């Protein structure tokens, strides 16, 4: 049975959640309910929306959730830039390839769903 667990983009984004949790562990304590929490929520939302979309009845809803996941990814990318600007992270370039790869995988999946009939 095909589920979200079979999707490479879901697996890859779940791995990235662990990375985000690791990097936010060293943020200042005053950010526990601020930027730390926001980064974690954005990261968690990516695979969560992929999973929710794949469980929906039709491709239209599925694509909608994939677009939401893309929005979450953009939020995460922005929050990493802010964390860098606040000197909480030294090098955010190391995350660029992961973000780019997840974005590409999401667009590829969306494109494949557009080709399929409801």
Characteristics of this structure?
de novo design (two linked rop proteins), mainly alpha, 118 residues, elongated
Mean pLDDT: 95
Q: What count of structural domains?
A: 1
Q: What distance lies between the first and last C-alpha atoms, to the nearest angstrom?
A: 19 Å
Rg over CA atoms: 15 Å
How would you describe the shape? Answer: elongated
**CATH 2nd-level architecture:** Up-down Bundle
Order of helices and strands: HHHH
Total number of helices: 4
**Considering DSSP H and I runs of 4 or more, what fraction of the residues is helical?**
over 70%
Largest sheet: none
CATH homolog superfamily:
23S rRNA-intervening sequence
Number of strands: 0
CATH topology: de novo design (two linked rop proteins)
Secondary-structure-based class equals mainly alpha
Question: Which class in CATH terms?
Answer: Mainly Alpha
Strand content: under 5%
- Identify low-pLDDT runs: none
């Amino acid at each position: 049975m095909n589920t979200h667990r079979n999707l490479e983009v879901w697996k890859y984004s779940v791995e990235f959640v662990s990375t985000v949790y690791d990097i936010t562990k060293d943020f200042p304590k005053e950010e526990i309910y601020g930027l730390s929490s926001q980064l974690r929520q954005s990261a968690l939302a990516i695979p969560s929306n992929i999973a929710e979309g794949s469980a929906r009845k039709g491709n239209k809803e599925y694509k909608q959730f994939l677009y939401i996941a893309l929005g979450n990814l953009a939020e995460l990318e922005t929050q990493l830039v802010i964390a860098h600007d606040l000197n909480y992270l030294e090098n955010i370039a190391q995350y660029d390839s992961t973000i780019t790869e997840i974005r590409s995988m999401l667009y590829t999946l969306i494109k494949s769903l557009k080709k399929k009939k409801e």
